[in-house]
Specification:
This is N-acetylglucosamine-6-phosphate deacetylase. Its cofactor is a divalent metal cation. It holds the Pfam family Amidohydro_1. GO terms for molecular function: metal ion binding; N-acetylglucosamine-6-phosphate deacetylase activity. Keywords: Carbohydrate metabolism, Hydrolase, Metal-binding. The protein is an alpha/beta fold and about 375 residues long. The chain has 2 domains: about 60 residues, no CATH class; about 300 residues, TIM Barrel (Alpha-Beta Barrel). It is about 25% helix and about 25% strand. The chain has 10 helices and 23 strands. Strands 1, 2, 3, 4, 5, 21, 22 and 23 form an 8-stranded mixed sheet that branches. Helix 2 runs parallel beside helix 3 and helix 5 packs across helix 6. It is globular and about 60 Å long. The two termini are about 15 Å apart.
Amino acid sequence: MIIQSKRIWINGRFSEAQLEIEKGIITRILEYGRKRTDKDYGNLRIVPGFIDIHTHGAYGFETNSADEEGLRRWLRGVPKEGVTSILPATVTDQEEVLLPALRNIRKVVETGYEGADILGIHLEGPYISKAYAGGQPDTHIAKPDIAQFDRLQKEAGNRIKIITMATEEDPDFALTRYCHKQGIVVSIGHSAADFRQCELALANGATSMTHVFNALTPIHHRKLGGSGAALRYQDVYGEIICDGNHVSVDTLQYFFRLKGSCRGIMITDSLALKGLPVGTCAKSGSYDVKLHADGSARIKGTQAFAGSTLRMIDGLKLLVEKAMVPFETALNSCTINPARLLREDNHLGRLMVNYDADLVVLHDDYTIAMTYIKGMEAF
C-alpha cells in the first residue's frame, strides 16, 4: 500500500512524500508523486500514532474491573482519538483485585484483540504515600515489597513496564533498584518525597515522574519539592495531564519550556467515564466519580480530581493552540518520547523506514480523518 500527502511528519518537519507500507511496516519513504497511490490525503497532516502510557480506562471500563469485553471495547475505541498504543494502568487496591486485573490483560493479549496495541502495563500503586494518595483509594496502600511485586508481575506475564511508586517509602530503595535492574521504568508519583529524596531515588534507578504537579510535593522558591525535581533534572521524563484542568495552560507552557522537546510526556490518566455523557457517575477504585461539563472526573460531592476523560487529540490541540507549545514539542510528547521511555523507539514513535505503520491523518482543526495501526485502518 502507498499513501501520500503534502504534509507528512518526517525528521521534525512536514514534507511532501509517499509512504510505502507492507505487512504493517513502513518499507520505503518516496518522493511525492513517485508512484501510483492507494490513498492520497492531499494537504492533510500525517503524524505518528499516539502512545498513552498512563490511562486507566474508558467507555465504562477500568483496568481494575478485569472485564474482558470492557478491555476489548476500550482498545477498539481509542483509535478514534489517534491512539495506536497504550499501557493500561491499575489503581491501588488489594491483591485480590489486582491479580485478576493483570490476568485479564494477559488473557486478551494472548488470545488476540483489535484496536490499539497493548505495549505493557502501568502499575500505579499500591506502593504510594497516604499523604499524596489523591484519587487513589488509601485503604489498600502497601509498603514496597519485592515478593508481592513478583507475584503481580507473574500474573501479568511479565508485562509490567512502568511502576508508579512513592520511592521514599521504599527502604534502601530496594524495589526501585530491583525494578530498574529488570528494565522496568520506576516513576516517582503519589509521593511525599522532597527534592533531596527524589534526587536519591533518581540516583537509585527512577527515571520518570508521574503526572507532574499532581500528587507530588509542590514547588516553593526555597523548597523545589518533587515537582521541582521533575523540572530541575533534564534527563528525567515527566508525565503531565494535558486536559487544562489538572494543570493550567500557562503551567503546561512552563513545563514544556523547561523539559524541552525530548522528556515531556502527555498522558490522559483517563477513567471509565471517558466517552460517557456528562453527569454520569462510575466507580474508580473505591470512589464514586462524576463526569463534569469541563471534562473533569471528580470524586462525587467534592472538587477533588480522580482522573480525567481527556482524548489524546484534544490534548495535542490544547498544547499547541492554547498553551502555545511548539508543535514538534507537543507531538513528541505523545509519540517518540513515550516510545523512548519504554525503549520501544526502535520501531515506534516516528515515521521512518522499518518502523510500525502507526499513523494519524489530521485535518487542520485537529479532527481525525484516519488512524492506521500497523498499516490497517483502525478508525
